[in-house]
Amino acid sequence: MRAFIETAAQALLEESSSDEAKTSVAFEAVIDVHSWLQSLEVGDAPAGLALDRVFFSMPLLTLTQCANYLNFLETAGVSHESVVKNSATALGHSQGVVSAVIFSTAKTAQEFVEIGVSVLRYMFWQGLRAQETYQLLLTQYK
């Protein structure tokens, strides 16, 4: 799980540090999960950031859901392969559908990590583009 979080944090740092992201009207801050985990107390949010905005929430919810599943595997002492083998379906509500797709697509724990990080990158961009659209609509309908 720790390796997944490190890899995912690096992916989010790379995507949110890109010139394309920084020039977006929806860009608020670089998503530096590693720095936040090192410097903040449990329950605290980075100063001045509204983490409930889709720019942050889409990738961070996906990261949290995937990390929770990997933690379950470690804690329960079971493999991803055995959980998938004994599952008839995977489901999720709202954004949980994304994590369910990652779960059901990955054949191994390593694939889960690889697909999870890839989808996390996608969720960053989806969140950024959704925030851009939302801000445009707010401007149009004021």
Automatic annotation (TrEMBL):
InterPro entries per record: Ac_transferase_dom_sf, Fungal_FAS, SAT
Transferase is among the record's keywords: yes
Pfam family, one: SAT
Domain Starter acyltransferase (SAT): 2-136
Keyword terms, alphabetized: Transferase
Molecular-function annotations in GO: transferase activity
Protein name: Starter acyltransferase (SAT) domain-containing protein
